[in-house]
């Protein structure tokens, strides 16, 4: 999706949700809708994910050694979709009805996705380091939608080549949309914390081109 179309859809969302915040991340941008899910729906969806999904904690190779990722995750998607990252190739679990309902709601807003990578941060000891969602299978301008459930966590952005930094607090029930240009020019992370934090789940919706 090109930047012009993304901004048109983002403006439409901002009219529907007056508390929405647009964060410029030049040459792209991000849009945060803090109350996209009601507290009750966010709590119910989190419980569904914890109770229903098959969770995994794979290991990735860093500096010649294998390390388990500092969180649990599950991959959901259409049949035939596969996702490759950090030397891993993942095949999806089938959609559950509640997760399909969320995807349908995003589609109604103009955003089409065929998969979700779901991360479970069990406490402040879990996190995700600096990275960009720019794998080849995501295409040239990959829009990513992130829905946060449970404990609010900070998502930090930094310019890939430069000194720019931005931080967003992601409350439970929020929707964050990032445009394709953000993936190419910025990195993001969910930093670990020494504070006593409760569990958080993030649902990151992507469109994966498995034939690329």
Order of helices and strands: HEEHEEEEEHEEEEEEHEE
Quickly give the CATH architecture of the domain at 1-17 and 90-212.
Sandwich
CATH topological fold name of the domain at 1-17 and 90-212: Jelly Rolls
Provide mean pLDDT, rounded: 91
Question: Could you give the topology of this structure?
Answer:
Layout: H1 3-16, E1 21-25, E2 28-33, H2 39-52, E3 59-62, E4 65-68, E5 72-77, E6 83-85, E7 88-90, H3 97-108, E8 115-121, E9 128-131, E10 144-150, E11 153-159, E12 165-170, E13 175-178, H4 180-185, E14 186-190, E15 200-206
Antiparallel strand pairs: 1-2, 2-13, 3-4, 5-8, 6-7, 8-15, 9-14, 10-13, 10-15, 11-12, 11-14
Give a summary of the structure in a few sentences.
It comes from Microbulbifer aestuariivivens. By secondary structure, the chain is α+β, with helices and mostly antiparallel strands.
What does this structure look like?
With 212 residues, the chain is α+β, with helices and mostly antiparallel strands. The protein has a domain at 1-17 and 90-212: Jelly Rolls, CATH 2.60.120.590. The chain has 4 helices and 15 strands. A 7-stranded antiparallel beta sheet has the order 1-2-13-10-15-8-5. A hairpin with a 2-residue loop joins β1 and β2 (28-33). The protein is globular, with a radius of gyration of 16 Å.
